[in-house]
Structures are given as structure tokens and as C-alpha cells.
């Protein structure tokens, strides 16, 4: 293998480049990144960056280029695995013996808002810069979606002294993986800090003056005045450029348990990779997955076969309203949730998610030390 193309220049792409070098690959590496920026850390975008306590320069992930050719501000438009050709938006063609797909995804947008100013998504540095510029004193903010991103944006906006309303279609935020009790606790964090939380209701339409959003109309008829609207409603894997490639795509790039696609010379990592785990295909959208997965994917790419299995840690963290939340493991299939330390009422506790009596997940709030110990004791799900 002489040339490897890494398509995607965010965390997963950078880690793939690092792993190629650390695992002994001394050939040509070409990195294609749609954004013009060098790889940067995304988690602070919704927190410290929006708050103004960290700058874009503070987010840079590495000062090294690892001897790679970095094609930034360039989009991959097509892949032909049979010839190892990656076609670029510049009409260039990169020919490679191996390809790492690390294209991540694009945020879901709110229907009917494409031409409205004041409506934002938050995934890239440019998104954060645009949103930050509108979080001015007196701005009324409506956040649609109470997942991690939506909750963090709402928390930051409250720290800036802004009026915030959070709209969530589900009756309980994040109930799918936290359960009803701990999900309700996340709802309490919003209301404890003066957020107007609207649960169990979706968005019907948007009021505007022809150019800019002025309000959000809910399906129950409620009108929420808004100067700024932020959509935190998930993302769509960036796989459109793979049409006609022969690779299987279904809510991400389908891979085996080692992040290898149906073509051994092509692997996928990060948010875009939908890999086999626990007898099914899963896709994880978090920093830890994007950081850890390239170790295995690159090893298998260089081996030319699936020599190693990726075992996700399932670790996610979030900072909201002055509390530090940490989550790990497989919480969705738990049949019991037990608080093993502290009290949710005190906003300091650790809880185990158990399946048939065995710990399979853990959530902690402001209890990092115990979280680490409980995380190490989780029952593996393979």
C-alpha cells in the first residue's frame, strides 16, 4: 500500500492520519476536508466558544501535518473503489490503494427555514461563529431539540443572560437512553435555570418578516417570539458522494465489526460509520467514538482484512448549567436503573444501568471519580 486517502478532516480523519503513521505506514497520505479549517475540537463549540471564553485558535487539535497532503476547502464528489479513485470538487483525482471515509455528517435543518436569517444549526466552526454573532444582549432564543447539543446551547445562552425557550417533541428529554427518571432530571436542569421548557409538542411553522425569523409556532397553537432559533435535531451522515460507488449505505456507511466495508481497501470511521456490534449495525455520534475507532480501522486497512474488532466504550460527556454529566456503556437495553451514590436531588450522583442484574451502563452527575470506577466494571456487550 503506497497511498491512502483520508476523506474528512475532522477528529476521526486526523486520528486516522495519526494512526497510519504510528502503525508504521510511511507512504503518501492525502487528506480531503470540505471545511477550510485545519482539524479542530467540536465539543467546545456549544459551550466555551459560544460563551467567548475560548477562541478558534484554542480549538486546534494538532500543529503537526504528519507528512500528509492536506486538501482543505475541497469536497470529495465521488469514489470509485475499483480504481481507488477519489474525485474532488476541484476536478482533481486522487488515486489511492486504501481509503478512510471520515466525512461525518450534516445537521438536520428545520423545514421552511432555508431562506430565513436568524435560524441556525451548530456543527461546524463557521456555524458557531455565525450563531455567536447573534447572541447579543436582549436576544430571545428558541432551541428546538433537547438533546446534548440543544441542552448545551440553551445552557450557554442562559449563561449569557438571554431568554431561552427549549422545544422538545418528546415528553421527556433523552428518555430513549437515559430512561424516564434520569431524563426528567435533565428536564429539571433547564427549568431550574429559568428556561421555558416546552415538552411533548413539535414545531408547526415559523413566523417571519420576509427575511428574518420572528417567532416559532408550535403544533398546539402557541406562538413563541424569537430573534434567534437554533435547531438541535440531529444529523444526517454525509454519504451522498458515495452514490454509485458500490458501497452499502444505510444511515451511514455499512461496515463489519472492524469498520471495514464490503471492499477491504475501504474503511469508515466516526459519525459516518455504521458498524456491526451486538448483532446489529450501530452508529455512534460522539467524540470518543471518533477518537477511538481509527485505531482499529487503520489496523484492518493496513492488514487488508478484518484482523481486529472495534469495541466501543460508549462514553459521552456534557457540561450543562454548571454540572458535569458523564455517560458510558449500553444504556438503551437496561431493565433497571439504580442510584449507587449520592442523590439526583443534590445534583451529585452516580447511577448504574443494569440488564439481568449486570451493569451495562453508567451515568454520573458531578461524580467523576466514582464514574471512572463504575465504567471499568461495565459488562461488555459484543
Summarize the structure.
The chain has 382 residues and is an alpha/beta fold.
Describe this structure in words.
Strands 3-2-1-7-19 form a five-stranded parallel sheet, with helices on one face. Strands 9-16-10-11-12 form a five-stranded parallel sheet, with helices on one face. α1 (11-22) runs parallel beside α6. It has seven helices and 26 strands. β4 (76-80) and β5 (85-88) form a beta hairpin. The protein has 382 residues and is an alpha/beta fold.
List the helices and strands and how they pair.
Blueprint: E1 3-7, H1 11-22, E2 28-33, H2 48-51, E3 69-72, E4 76-80, E5 85-88, E6 93-95, E7 98-101, E8 105-107, E9 119-121, H3 125-132, E10 140-144, H4 148-159, E11 163-168, H5 175-192, E12 196-199, E13 203-208, E14 213-218, E15 223-225, E16 228-231, E17 235-237, E18 253-254, E19 266-268, E20 273-277, E21 280-282, H6 287-303, E22 316-320, E23 323-329, E24 336-343, E25 348-355, E26 358-365, H7 368-376
Parallel strand pairs: 1-2, 1-7, 2-3, 7-19, 9-16, 10-11, 10-16, 11-12, 18-20
Antiparallel strand pairs: 4-5, 5-6, 8-17, 13-14, 14-15, 20-21, 22-23, 23-26, 24-25, 25-26
Strand line-up of the largest beta sheet: 3-2-1-7-19
**What portion of residues is helical?**
10-25%
Oligomeric state as shown: single chain
Approximate strand percentage = 25-35%
- Mean pLDDT, all residues: 95
Q: Which runs of at least 5 residues are low in confidence (pLDDT < 50)?
A: none
How far apart the termini lie comes to 31 Å
**What is the gyration radius calculated from CA atoms?**
21 Å
Dominant shape: globular
Amino acid at each position: 500500500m503506497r497511498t491512502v486517502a483520508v476523506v474528512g478532516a475532522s477528529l476521526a480523519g486526523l486520528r486516522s492520519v495519526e494512526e497510519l503513521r504510528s502503525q508504521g505506514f510511511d507512504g503518501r497520505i492525502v487528506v480531503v476536508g470540505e471545511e477550510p479549517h485545519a482539524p479542530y475540537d467540536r465539543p467546545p463549540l456549544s459551550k466555551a466558544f459560544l460563551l467567548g471564553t475560548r477562541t478558534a485558535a484554542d480549538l486546534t487539535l494538532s500543529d503537526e501535518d504528519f507528512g500528509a497532503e492536506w486538501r482543505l476547502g475541497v469536497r470529495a464528489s465521488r469514489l470509485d473503489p475499483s480504481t481507488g479513485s477519489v474525485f474532488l470538487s476541484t476536478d482533481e483525482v486522487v488515486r489511492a490503494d486504501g481509503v478512510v471515509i471520515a466525512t461525518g455528517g450534516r445537521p438536520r435543518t428545520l423545514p421552511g427555514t432555508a431562506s430565513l436569517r436568524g435560524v441556525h444549526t451548530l456543527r461546524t466552526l463557521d456555524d458557531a461563529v455565525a450563531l455567536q454573532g447573534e447572541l447579543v444582549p436582549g436576544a430571545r432564543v428558541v432551541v428546538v431539540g433537547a438533546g446534548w447539543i440543544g441542552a448545551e446551547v440553551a445552557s450557554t445562552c442562559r449563561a449569557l443572560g438571554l431568554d431561552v425557550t427549549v422545544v422538545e417533541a418528546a415528553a421527556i428529554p433523552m428518555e430513549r437512553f437515559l430512561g424516564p427518571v434520569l431524563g426528567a432530571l435533565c428536564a429539571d436542569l433547564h427549568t431550574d435555570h429559568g428556561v421555558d421548557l416546552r415538552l411533548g409538542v413539535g414545531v408547526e411553522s415559523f413566523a417571519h418578516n420576509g427575511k428574518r425569523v420572528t417567532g416559532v409556532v408550535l403544533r398546539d397553537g402557541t406562538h413563541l417570539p424569537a430573534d434567534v432559533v437554533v435547531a438541535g435535531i440531529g444529523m444526517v451522515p454525509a454519504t451522498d458522494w458515495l452514490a454509485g460507488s458500490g458501497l452499502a449505505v444505510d444511515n451511514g456507511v455499512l461496515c463489519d465489526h472492524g469498520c471495514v466495508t464490503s471492499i477491504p481497501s475501504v474503511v469508515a470511521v466516526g459519525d459516518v460509520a455504521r458498524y456491526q456490534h451486538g448483532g446489529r449495525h450501530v452508529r455512534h455520534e460522539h467524540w470518543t467514538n471518533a477518537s477511538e475507532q481509527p485505531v482499529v480501522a487503520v489496523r484492518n486497512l493496513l492488514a487488508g482484512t478484518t484482523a481486529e474488532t472495534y469495541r466501543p466504550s460508549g462514553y459521552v460527556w456534557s457540561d450543562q448549567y454548571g454540572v458535569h454529566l458523564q455517560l458510558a456503556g449500553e444504556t438503551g437495553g437496561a431493565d433497571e436503573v439504580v442510584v449507587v451514590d449520592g442523590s439526583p436531588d443534590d445534583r451529585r450522583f452516580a447511577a448504574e444501568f443494569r440488564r439481568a442484574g449486570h451493569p451495562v451502563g453508567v451515568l454520573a452527575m458531578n461524580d467523576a471519580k466514582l464514574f471512572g470506577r463504575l465504567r471499568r466494571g461495565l459488562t461488555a456487550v459484543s
